[in-house]
Amino acid sequence: MSEGTLYDKVWDRHTVTTLPTGQTQLFVGLHLIHEVTSPQAFGMLRERGLDVAYPELTHATVDHIVPTADQSRPYGDSAAEEMMAELEENVRDAGIEFDDPTTGDQGIVHVIGPEQGITQPGKTIVCGDSHTSTHGAFGALAFGIGTSQIRDVLATGCIAMEKQKVRKIEVTGELGDGVEAKDVILEIIRRLGTEGGVGYVYEYAGEAIESLDMEGRMSICNMSIEGGARAGYVNPDEKTYEWLRNTDEFADDPEKFERLKPYWESVRSDEDAEYDDVVVIDGNELEPVVTWGTTPGQGIGISEPIPDPDDLPKAKQETARRAQEHMRVSPGETMEGYKIDVAFLGSCTNSRLADLRRAAKIVEGRQVHPDVRAMVVPGSQRVQRAAEEEGLKDIFTEAGFDWRNAGCSMCLGMNEDQLQGDEACASSSNRNFIGRQGSKDGRTILMNPRMVVAAAIKGEVTDVRELREVATA
Ligand SMILES: CC(C)[C@H](C(=O)O)[C@@H](O)C(=O)O
Ligand code: SF4
Protein backbone atom coordinates (compact mmCIF):
# COMPACT_ATOMS: atom_id res chain seq x y z
CA MET A 1 0.00 0.00 0.00
CA SER A 2 1.27 3.44 -0.84
CA GLU A 3 2.11 5.51 2.17
CA GLY A 4 2.56 8.52 -0.05
CA THR A 5 5.25 11.14 -0.34
CA LEU A 6 8.31 11.61 1.82
CA TYR A 7 6.46 14.54 3.33
CA ASP A 8 3.50 12.33 4.33
CA LYS A 9 5.74 9.67 5.80
CA VAL A 10 8.01 11.94 7.82
CA TRP A 11 4.99 13.84 9.01
CA ASP A 12 3.20 10.68 10.13
CA ARG A 13 6.23 9.27 11.87
CA HIS A 14 6.72 12.45 13.89
CA THR A 15 3.10 13.06 14.78
CA VAL A 16 2.49 13.09 18.53
CA THR A 17 -1.18 14.00 18.44
CA THR A 18 -3.79 16.20 16.84
CA LEU A 19 -4.26 19.35 18.87
CA PRO A 20 -7.66 20.90 19.70
CA THR A 21 -6.77 23.64 17.20
CA GLY A 22 -6.72 21.04 14.44
CA GLN A 23 -2.98 21.41 14.09
CA THR A 24 -0.61 18.48 14.37
CA GLN A 25 1.84 18.26 17.21
CA LEU A 26 5.10 17.13 15.61
CA PHE A 27 8.19 15.89 17.37
CA VAL A 28 11.34 17.74 16.34
CA GLY A 29 14.46 15.69 15.64
CA LEU A 30 16.90 18.58 15.39
CA HIS A 31 16.59 22.18 16.52
CA LEU A 32 19.26 24.46 15.11
CA ILE A 33 19.74 27.84 16.70
CA HIS A 34 21.69 31.00 15.93
CA GLU A 35 22.31 34.31 17.65
CA VAL A 36 19.66 36.42 15.93
CA THR A 37 16.39 34.63 16.55
CA SER A 38 17.01 32.61 19.72
CA PRO A 39 17.61 35.18 22.52
CA GLN A 40 13.98 36.23 22.85
CA ALA A 41 12.82 32.62 22.95
CA PHE A 42 15.29 31.77 25.71
CA GLY A 43 13.98 34.83 27.54
CA MET A 44 10.40 33.55 27.30
CA LEU A 45 11.54 30.22 28.70
CA ARG A 46 13.23 31.88 31.64
CA GLU A 47 10.12 33.95 32.39
CA ARG A 48 8.19 30.72 32.78
CA GLY A 49 10.92 28.95 34.70
CA LEU A 50 11.23 26.24 32.04
CA ASP A 51 14.30 24.27 31.00
CA VAL A 52 15.33 23.26 27.52
CA ALA A 53 13.65 19.88 27.06
CA TYR A 54 16.11 18.26 24.64
CA PRO A 55 19.49 19.99 24.70
CA GLU A 56 20.99 16.94 23.00
CA LEU A 57 18.72 17.52 19.99
CA THR A 58 19.63 21.21 19.86
CA HIS A 59 22.70 22.61 18.13
CA ALA A 60 23.94 26.19 18.01
CA THR A 61 26.19 28.26 15.81
CA VAL A 62 26.90 31.95 15.27
CA ASP A 63 26.69 33.24 11.72
CA HIS A 64 24.77 36.45 11.02
CA ILE A 65 26.62 38.97 13.13
CA VAL A 66 30.03 37.37 13.26
CA PRO A 67 32.73 39.62 11.78
CA THR A 68 34.44 38.03 8.79
CA ALA A 69 37.72 39.91 9.21
CA ASP A 70 38.91 40.53 12.78
CA GLN A 71 37.15 38.05 15.06
CA SER A 72 38.96 38.93 18.29
CA ARG A 73 36.70 39.46 21.30
CA PRO A 74 35.03 41.62 22.29
CA TYR A 75 33.78 42.27 18.76
CA GLY A 76 34.23 45.82 17.48
CA ASP A 77 30.46 46.15 17.06
CA SER A 78 28.95 46.22 20.55
CA ALA A 79 25.53 44.97 19.37
CA ALA A 80 27.21 41.95 17.80
CA GLU A 81 29.21 41.34 20.96
CA GLU A 82 26.05 41.48 23.03
CA MET A 83 24.24 38.95 20.83
CA MET A 84 27.20 36.63 20.94
CA ALA A 85 27.51 36.90 24.72
CA GLU A 86 23.81 36.21 25.15
CA LEU A 87 23.97 33.11 22.96
CA GLU A 88 27.02 31.89 24.87
CA GLU A 89 25.21 32.24 28.16
CA ASN A 90 22.04 30.56 26.90
CA VAL A 91 23.78 27.53 25.44
CA ARG A 92 26.04 27.16 28.46
CA ASP A 93 23.11 27.21 30.89
CA ALA A 94 21.15 24.72 28.83
CA GLY A 95 24.04 22.41 27.94
CA ILE A 96 23.63 22.88 24.18
CA GLU A 97 26.49 22.15 21.84
CA PHE A 98 27.75 25.40 20.33
CA ASP A 99 30.06 25.71 17.34
CA ASP A 100 31.62 29.04 18.23
CA PRO A 101 34.52 30.33 16.11
CA THR A 102 37.12 28.86 18.48
CA THR A 103 35.92 25.32 17.71
CA GLY A 104 36.87 25.30 14.03
CA ASP A 105 33.34 24.05 13.29
CA GLN A 106 31.54 27.39 13.17
CA GLY A 107 29.68 28.46 10.08
CA ILE A 108 26.32 29.35 8.59
CA VAL A 109 23.70 27.21 10.27
CA HIS A 110 22.59 25.67 6.95
CA VAL A 111 26.13 24.74 6.06
CA ILE A 112 27.24 23.17 9.33
CA GLY A 113 24.26 20.84 9.88
CA PRO A 114 24.81 18.92 6.65
CA GLU A 115 28.58 18.95 6.94
CA GLN A 116 28.53 17.42 10.41
CA GLY A 117 25.98 14.79 9.45
CA ILE A 118 23.32 15.88 11.92
CA THR A 119 21.09 16.74 8.97
CA GLN A 120 19.66 13.37 7.99
CA PRO A 121 16.90 11.91 5.82
CA GLY A 122 13.54 11.50 7.48
CA LYS A 123 14.35 13.90 10.33
CA THR A 124 12.22 16.86 11.28
CA ILE A 125 14.52 19.86 11.47
CA VAL A 126 13.58 23.37 12.53
CA CYS A 127 15.45 26.63 12.99
CA GLY A 128 14.43 30.22 13.53
CA ASP A 129 15.59 30.99 10.03
CA SER A 130 13.71 31.02 6.76
CA HIS A 131 16.35 29.15 4.79
CA THR A 132 16.09 26.04 6.96
CA SER A 133 14.52 24.42 3.89
CA THR A 134 18.14 23.85 2.79
CA HIS A 135 18.30 20.69 4.90
CA GLY A 136 15.54 19.18 2.76
CA ALA A 137 18.27 18.34 0.24
CA PHE A 138 18.92 15.29 2.43
CA GLY A 139 15.29 14.20 2.51
CA ALA A 140 14.72 15.87 5.87
CA LEU A 141 11.51 17.73 6.57
CA ALA A 142 12.98 21.10 7.43
CA PHE A 143 11.35 24.46 7.94
CA GLY A 144 11.96 27.88 9.35
CA ILE A 145 10.04 28.86 12.49
CA GLY A 146 9.22 32.08 14.36
CA THR A 147 10.17 33.18 17.86
CA SER A 148 7.20 31.71 19.73
CA GLN A 149 7.74 28.41 17.93
CA ILE A 150 11.41 28.45 18.91
CA ARG A 151 10.21 28.83 22.49
CA ASP A 152 7.82 25.89 22.06
CA VAL A 153 10.51 23.66 20.61
CA LEU A 154 13.01 24.61 23.30
CA ALA A 155 10.45 23.89 26.02
CA THR A 156 8.83 20.74 24.62
CA GLY A 157 10.79 19.38 21.65
CA CYS A 158 7.56 19.69 19.69
CA ILE A 159 5.90 22.09 17.35
CA ALA A 160 2.31 22.73 16.31
CA MET A 161 1.89 22.78 12.54
CA GLU A 162 -0.65 22.62 9.77
CA LYS A 163 -0.07 20.11 7.05
CA GLN A 164 0.76 21.59 3.66
CA LYS A 165 0.06 20.35 0.16
CA VAL A 166 2.88 18.82 -1.89
CA ARG A 167 3.89 20.02 -5.34
CA LYS A 168 6.28 17.85 -7.27
CA ILE A 169 8.64 19.88 -9.42
CA GLU A 170 10.18 17.61 -11.96
CA VAL A 171 13.21 18.94 -13.78
CA THR A 172 13.83 16.67 -16.76
CA GLY A 173 16.85 16.28 -19.00
CA GLU A 174 20.35 17.47 -18.50
CA LEU A 175 21.63 20.91 -17.52
CA GLY A 176 23.79 22.52 -20.15
CA ASP A 177 27.37 23.64 -19.77
CA GLY A 178 27.63 26.53 -17.29
CA VAL A 179 24.10 25.96 -15.96
CA GLU A 180 23.83 25.11 -12.27
CA ALA A 181 21.41 24.28 -9.50
CA LYS A 182 21.10 27.99 -8.72
CA ASP A 183 19.81 28.62 -12.23
CA VAL A 184 17.24 25.86 -11.81
CA ILE A 185 15.80 27.36 -8.65
CA LEU A 186 15.86 30.92 -9.99
CA GLU A 187 13.97 29.61 -13.03
CA ILE A 188 11.45 27.76 -10.85
CA ILE A 189 10.75 30.89 -8.82
CA ARG A 190 10.55 33.01 -11.92
CA ARG A 191 7.95 30.70 -13.43
CA LEU A 192 5.87 29.92 -10.35
CA GLY A 193 6.35 33.27 -8.61
CA THR A 194 7.56 34.24 -5.17
CA GLU A 195 4.09 33.43 -3.79
CA GLY A 196 3.51 30.41 -5.99
CA GLY A 197 4.51 27.96 -3.28
CA VAL A 198 2.31 29.35 -0.50
CA GLY A 199 0.49 26.42 1.13
CA TYR A 200 2.91 23.93 -0.43
CA VAL A 201 6.01 21.95 0.25
CA TYR A 202 8.10 21.37 -2.88
CA GLU A 203 9.44 17.97 -3.81
CA TYR A 204 12.23 18.40 -6.36
CA ALA A 205 12.62 15.42 -8.63
CA GLY A 206 13.60 14.38 -12.13
CA GLU A 207 16.83 13.52 -13.86
CA ALA A 208 18.35 16.98 -13.64
CA ILE A 209 17.84 17.07 -9.87
CA GLU A 210 19.04 13.52 -9.32
CA SER A 211 22.24 14.21 -11.21
CA LEU A 212 23.09 17.17 -8.97
CA ASP A 213 25.60 16.74 -6.16
CA MET A 214 24.42 17.33 -2.60
CA GLU A 215 25.65 20.91 -2.70
CA GLY A 216 23.50 21.60 -5.76
CA ARG A 217 20.48 20.05 -4.12
CA MET A 218 21.08 22.27 -1.08
CA SER A 219 21.18 25.39 -3.27
CA ILE A 220 17.79 24.45 -4.70
CA CYS A 221 16.11 23.53 -1.42
CA ASN A 222 17.62 26.64 0.18
CA MET A 223 15.54 28.94 -2.00
CA SER A 224 12.23 27.06 -1.64
CA ILE A 225 11.12 29.76 0.75
CA GLU A 226 11.87 32.45 -1.87
CA GLY A 227 9.26 30.72 -3.98
CA GLY A 228 6.78 30.86 -1.09
CA ALA A 229 7.02 27.15 -0.19
CA ARG A 230 7.26 26.27 3.48
CA ALA A 231 9.86 23.59 2.79
CA GLY A 232 11.51 21.76 -0.08
CA TYR A 233 13.13 18.37 -0.33
CA VAL A 234 14.80 15.84 -2.55
CA ASN A 235 14.29 12.13 -1.94
CA PRO A 236 17.43 10.58 -0.45
CA ASP A 237 19.51 8.34 -2.70
CA GLU A 238 23.00 6.85 -2.90
CA LYS A 239 24.56 10.33 -3.14
CA THR A 240 22.84 11.32 0.08
CA TYR A 241 24.02 8.20 1.87
CA GLU A 242 27.54 8.61 0.53
CA TRP A 243 27.71 12.15 1.89
CA LEU A 244 26.46 11.01 5.28
CA ARG A 245 28.84 8.05 5.45
CA ASN A 246 31.75 10.50 5.49
CA THR A 247 30.45 12.87 8.17
CA ASP A 248 31.37 13.03 11.88
CA GLU A 249 28.17 11.28 12.82
CA PHE A 250 28.93 8.13 10.85
CA ALA A 251 32.56 7.99 9.75
CA ASP A 252 33.61 6.33 13.01
CA ASP A 253 30.36 4.50 13.56
CA PRO A 254 29.50 2.48 10.44
CA GLU A 255 27.12 0.38 12.49
CA LYS A 256 25.00 3.41 13.24
CA PHE A 257 24.99 4.19 9.53
CA GLU A 258 23.76 0.69 8.68
CA ARG A 259 21.16 0.88 11.42
CA LEU A 260 19.68 4.13 10.17
CA LYS A 261 19.91 3.54 6.43
CA PRO A 262 16.78 1.35 6.16
CA TYR A 263 14.78 4.15 7.77
CA TRP A 264 16.23 6.69 5.36
CA GLU A 265 15.33 4.48 2.42
CA SER A 266 11.84 3.89 3.79
CA VAL A 267 10.89 7.57 3.76
CA ARG A 268 11.45 8.04 0.03
CA SER A 269 8.25 9.00 -1.78
CA ASP A 270 6.51 5.94 -3.17
CA GLU A 271 6.44 5.53 -6.95
CA ASP A 272 2.66 5.81 -6.90
CA ALA A 273 2.49 8.66 -4.38
CA GLU A 274 -0.15 11.26 -5.17
CA TYR A 275 0.72 14.92 -5.42
CA ASP A 276 -1.51 17.96 -5.09
CA ASP A 277 0.23 19.47 -8.08
CA VAL A 278 2.96 18.54 -10.55
CA VAL A 279 5.09 20.97 -12.54
CA VAL A 280 7.52 19.81 -15.22
CA ILE A 281 10.47 21.91 -16.32
CA ASP A 282 12.76 20.95 -19.19
CA GLY A 283 16.30 21.21 -17.81
CA ASN A 284 17.80 21.09 -21.31
CA GLU A 285 16.33 24.49 -22.09
CA LEU A 286 17.85 26.41 -19.20
CA GLU A 287 20.67 28.92 -19.36
CA PRO A 288 22.37 30.85 -16.56
CA VAL A 289 19.73 33.00 -14.87
CA VAL A 290 20.29 36.46 -13.40
CA THR A 291 17.85 38.76 -11.66
CA TRP A 292 16.97 42.14 -13.15
CA GLY A 293 14.76 43.28 -10.27
CA THR A 294 14.34 43.33 -6.53
CA THR A 295 12.75 39.95 -5.86
CA PRO A 296 14.28 36.52 -6.55
CA GLY A 297 11.37 35.90 -8.95
CA GLN A 298 12.43 38.74 -11.24
CA GLY A 299 14.93 36.71 -13.21
CA ILE A 300 15.79 36.09 -16.84
CA GLY A 301 18.15 33.92 -18.84
CA ILE A 302 21.39 35.75 -19.48
CA SER A 303 20.61 36.15 -23.19
CA GLU A 304 16.97 37.16 -22.72
CA PRO A 305 15.59 40.69 -22.73
CA ILE A 306 14.34 42.33 -19.55
CA PRO A 307 10.53 42.21 -19.69
CA ASP A 308 8.34 45.22 -20.28
CA PRO A 309 6.19 45.68 -17.16
CA ASP A 310 3.21 46.35 -19.44
CA ASP A 311 3.51 42.80 -20.77
CA LEU A 312 3.39 41.23 -17.31
CA PRO A 313 0.23 40.16 -15.49
CA LYS A 314 -1.50 43.23 -13.98
CA ALA A 315 -0.63 42.28 -10.40
CA LYS A 316 3.09 42.28 -11.20
CA GLN A 317 3.33 45.47 -13.24
CA GLU A 318 3.79 48.07 -10.54
CA THR A 319 6.45 46.14 -8.61
CA ALA A 320 8.28 45.48 -11.88
CA ARG A 321 8.25 49.20 -12.73
CA ARG A 322 9.59 50.14 -9.33
CA ALA A 323 12.20 47.38 -9.46
CA GLN A 324 13.42 48.56 -12.87
CA GLU A 325 13.68 52.09 -11.60
CA HIS A 326 15.69 50.96 -8.59
CA MET A 327 17.97 48.75 -10.66
CA ARG A 328 18.15 51.32 -13.48
CA VAL A 329 17.41 48.82 -16.20
CA SER A 330 15.07 49.13 -19.18
CA PRO A 331 12.82 46.65 -20.95
CA GLY A 332 14.37 45.09 -24.01
CA GLU A 333 17.97 45.21 -22.70
CA THR A 334 19.68 42.07 -21.49
CA MET A 335 21.51 42.03 -18.15
CA GLU A 336 24.76 41.23 -19.91
CA GLY A 337 27.10 44.20 -19.61
CA TYR A 338 25.42 45.62 -16.46
CA LYS A 339 28.25 47.27 -14.51
CA ILE A 340 28.97 45.98 -11.05
CA ASP A 341 30.98 47.43 -8.14
CA VAL A 342 31.02 44.46 -5.79
CA ALA A 343 31.12 40.68 -6.19
CA PHE A 344 30.01 38.51 -3.28
CA LEU A 345 30.67 34.79 -3.35
CA GLY A 346 29.11 33.38 -0.20
CA SER A 347 25.84 32.70 1.72
CA CYS A 348 24.02 29.51 2.65
CA THR A 349 22.95 29.15 -0.98
CA ASN A 350 26.40 28.98 -2.53
CA SER A 351 29.39 28.96 -0.19
CA ARG A 352 30.26 25.29 0.03
CA LEU A 353 33.44 23.66 -1.14
CA ALA A 354 31.90 22.51 -4.44
CA ASP A 355 30.78 26.10 -5.17
CA LEU A 356 34.23 27.51 -4.43
CA ARG A 357 35.92 24.82 -6.50
CA ARG A 358 33.81 25.52 -9.56
CA ALA A 359 34.29 29.27 -9.21
CA ALA A 360 38.06 28.92 -8.71
CA LYS A 361 38.33 27.12 -12.06
CA ILE A 362 37.02 30.26 -13.76
CA VAL A 363 39.19 32.57 -11.66
CA GLU A 364 42.49 30.74 -12.10
CA GLY A 365 44.95 32.82 -14.09
CA ARG A 366 42.64 35.85 -14.24
CA GLN A 367 42.32 39.12 -12.31
CA VAL A 368 39.42 40.88 -10.62
CA HIS A 369 38.47 43.99 -12.60
CA PRO A 370 40.14 47.10 -11.08
CA ASP A 371 36.76 48.78 -10.40
CA VAL A 372 35.39 45.80 -8.47
CA ARG A 373 35.59 44.95 -4.78
CA ALA A 374 35.34 41.16 -4.69
CA MET A 375 35.07 38.86 -1.72
CA VAL A 376 34.81 35.17 -0.99
CA VAL A 377 33.19 34.20 2.29
CA PRO A 378 33.28 30.43 2.92
CA GLY A 379 30.12 29.05 4.49
CA SER A 380 31.93 27.43 7.38
CA GLN A 381 35.33 27.14 8.98
CA ARG A 382 35.57 23.61 7.62
CA VAL A 383 34.94 24.82 4.08
CA GLN A 384 37.47 27.57 4.68
CA ARG A 385 40.17 25.15 5.87
CA ALA A 386 39.53 22.66 3.09
CA ALA A 387 39.63 25.44 0.49
CA GLU A 388 42.88 26.74 1.93
CA GLU A 389 44.41 23.27 1.94
CA GLU A 390 43.59 22.61 -1.68
CA GLY A 391 44.91 25.95 -2.82
CA LEU A 392 41.59 27.63 -3.64
CA LYS A 393 42.31 30.52 -1.31
CA ASP A 394 45.53 31.23 -3.23
CA ILE A 395 43.70 31.21 -6.54
CA PHE A 396 41.17 33.72 -5.25
CA THR A 397 43.58 36.00 -3.45
CA GLU A 398 46.09 36.05 -6.31
CA ALA A 399 43.24 37.18 -8.55
CA GLY A 400 42.44 40.02 -6.14
CA PHE A 401 39.54 38.55 -4.15
CA ASP A 402 39.33 39.28 -0.45
CA TRP A 403 39.31 35.95 1.46
CA ARG A 404 37.16 36.19 4.60
CA ASN A 405 36.21 34.15 7.64
CA ALA A 406 32.99 32.15 7.64
CA GLY A 407 29.59 33.76 8.19
CA CYS A 408 26.51 35.23 6.52
CA SER A 409 28.43 38.40 5.74
CA MET A 410 27.18 40.48 2.83
CA CYS A 411 24.22 38.21 2.21
CA LEU A 412 22.31 40.50 4.55
CA GLY A 413 24.89 42.95 5.89
CA MET A 414 24.32 42.38 9.60
CA ASN A 415 28.06 42.77 10.15
CA GLU A 416 30.57 45.17 8.62
CA ASP A 417 30.28 43.64 5.14
CA GLN A 418 27.85 45.97 3.42
CA LEU A 419 27.22 47.73 0.15
CA GLN A 420 27.89 51.47 0.13
CA GLY A 421 25.55 53.97 -1.52
CA ASP A 422 24.14 52.66 -4.79
CA GLU A 423 26.77 50.00 -5.39
CA ALA A 424 25.72 47.12 -7.62
CA CYS A 425 26.62 43.65 -6.42
CA ALA A 426 26.84 40.36 -8.30
CA SER A 427 25.83 37.99 -5.52
CA SER A 428 25.61 34.24 -5.07
CA SER A 429 23.09 34.74 -2.23
CA ASN A 430 19.33 34.25 -2.28
CA ARG A 431 17.70 37.63 -1.73
CA ASN A 432 17.88 40.83 -3.75
CA PHE A 433 15.34 42.86 -1.80
CA ILE A 434 15.95 46.60 -1.63
CA GLY A 435 18.32 47.32 1.25
CA ARG A 436 19.19 43.66 1.72
CA GLN A 437 22.94 44.07 1.53
CA GLY A 438 23.15 46.97 3.97
CA SER A 439 22.48 50.01 1.80
CA LYS A 440 19.00 51.21 0.83
CA ASP A 441 20.22 52.24 -2.61
CA GLY A 442 22.34 49.13 -3.13
CA ARG A 443 21.54 46.95 -6.12
CA THR A 444 21.80 43.17 -5.92
CA ILE A 445 21.91 40.83 -8.90
CA LEU A 446 21.47 37.17 -7.97
CA MET A 447 23.31 34.55 -9.99
CA ASN A 448 25.25 31.33 -9.71
CA PRO A 449 28.76 31.33 -8.19
CA ARG A 450 30.62 31.00 -11.49
CA MET A 451 28.60 33.89 -12.88
CA VAL A 452 29.61 35.93 -9.81
CA VAL A 453 33.30 35.47 -10.37
CA ALA A 454 32.89 36.03 -14.12
CA ALA A 455 31.25 39.37 -13.29
CA ALA A 456 34.08 40.16 -10.85
CA ILE A 457 36.64 39.60 -13.60
CA LYS A 458 34.83 41.54 -16.32
CA GLY A 459 33.44 44.30 -14.09
CA GLU A 460 29.99 43.63 -15.48
CA VAL A 461 27.38 40.90 -15.67
CA THR A 462 28.84 38.34 -18.04
CA ASP A 463 27.80 35.02 -19.53
CA VAL A 464 30.30 32.71 -17.85
CA ARG A 465 30.09 30.35 -20.80
CA GLU A 466 32.03 32.87 -22.88
CA LEU A 467 34.80 33.05 -20.27
CA ARG A 468 35.03 29.30 -20.03
CA GLU A 469 35.66 29.02 -23.73
CA VAL A 470 38.60 31.36 -23.40
CA ALA A 471 39.87 29.32 -20.48
CA THR A 472 39.76 26.03 -22.33
CA ALA A 473 40.91 27.39 -25.70
C1 LIG B 1 18.05 36.70 10.49
C2 LIG B 1 17.11 35.64 10.01
C3 LIG B 1 15.89 35.69 10.82
C4 LIG B 1 16.84 35.74 8.51
C5 LIG B 1 15.93 34.62 8.01
O1 LIG B 1 15.06 34.11 8.67
O2 LIG B 1 16.05 34.21 6.90
C6 LIG B 1 18.12 35.73 7.69
O3 LIG B 1 18.81 34.54 7.80
C7 LIG B 1 17.82 36.04 6.26
O4 LIG B 1 18.31 35.34 5.38
O5 LIG B 1 17.12 37.01 6.02
S1 SF4 C 1 23.60 33.32 4.59
FE1 SF4 C 1 22.00 34.80 4.20
S2 SF4 C 1 20.19 33.64 3.76
FE2 SF4 C 1 21.63 32.27 4.72
S3 SF4 C 1 21.09 32.30 6.88
FE3 SF4 C 1 22.68 33.83 6.56
S4 SF4 C 1 21.58 35.73 6.17
FE4 SF4 C 1 20.10 34.08 5.95
UniProtKB/TrEMBL annotation:
It catalyses: (2R,3S)-3-isopropylmalate = (2S)-2-isopropylmalate. Residues 8-459 form the Aconitase/3-isopropylmalate dehydratase large subunit alpha/beta/alpha domain. Its cofactor is [4Fe-4S] cluster. Keywords: 4Fe-4S, Amino-acid biosynthesis, Branched-chain amino acid biosynthesis, Iron, Iron-sulfur, Leucine biosynthesis, Lyase, Metal-binding. SUPFAM superfamilies: Aconitase iron-sulfur domain. Catalyzes the isomerization between 2-isopropylmalate and 3-isopropylmalate, via the formation of 2-isopropylmaleate. Belongs to the aconitase/IPM isomerase family. LeuC type 1 subfamily. This is 3-isopropylmalate dehydratase large subunit. It comes from Salinigranum rubrum.
